[in-house]
Fold this protein.
Amino acid sequence: MKLLSTGNPKVLKGIKQGYNTYILHLAPARLSGHEVCPKRTVGCTDSCLNTAGRGGMFKRGEVTNVIQEARIRKTKLFFADRDGFMELLVKDILLGIKQSERLGLIPVFRLNGTSDLSWEKYPVKMGNVFYTNIFEAFPNVQFYDYTKVLGRKVNGISNYHLTFSAADGNDNDVTKAISQGYNIATVFGIKKTVPMPELYLGTPVYNGDESDLRFLDPKGVIVGLYAKGKAKKDTSGFVKYPTISLKIAA
Ligand code: SF4
């Protein structure tokens, strides 16, 4: 079973900047029977990018497809055979490093493409050596994720970058995350033709749709994302509506 995939439109933007992103997509929420998003909200669950792109294309009358089935199989494996799963992950990362070297690209890895697991908690074995987690096993490789879980024990893991995600009902966590130095990913209900607001919550907004390479973002920003897919119809508060001031010529 192959765990990592590459090639979504945002990843392709990263290639232009010299980075090859490999993403692990598990089945989010409890779709597999196992919860992988401990701090999910009603709004983010409804608008989850799990059904964006090919993952959301279903034949008439069907409620699943090969992509969704593969995500469920991977998630079940993660819970049923952790060692076997981590072994496959190591194999895929090694392969990604080799492939990227051949292409002259820098490999980077995002393990929570459609989940919010605390990867720092899971030990891994490579060869005969045990490591505290996947980040320690690949100290020269950049990993990054979005998370809604505050207080993750990632201080001191220099090759793992986290961006905190705003959603419906997690305003207090957003305030704490800002005070802890996180950038905040925020989905805005504006059309792609409209520029991002300059400020949100009094903080500069950086356009996060230019690429997915969050570890390159400036510090102390709101990472603005345009609403996509189901999020365009969100009424839960997951999608935020900034006040845009228009300059009117005198
Ligand atoms: S936490 Fe993330 S992956 Fe999980 S349901 Fe919400 S948006 Fe999807």
Q: What stands out?
A: The pocket of iron/sulfur cluster is lined by residues 28-29, 37, 40, 44-45, 48, 114-116, 148 (CB under 6 Å). Residues 178 and 209 are 20 Å apart (CA to CA). DSSP finds six helices and eleven strands in the chain.
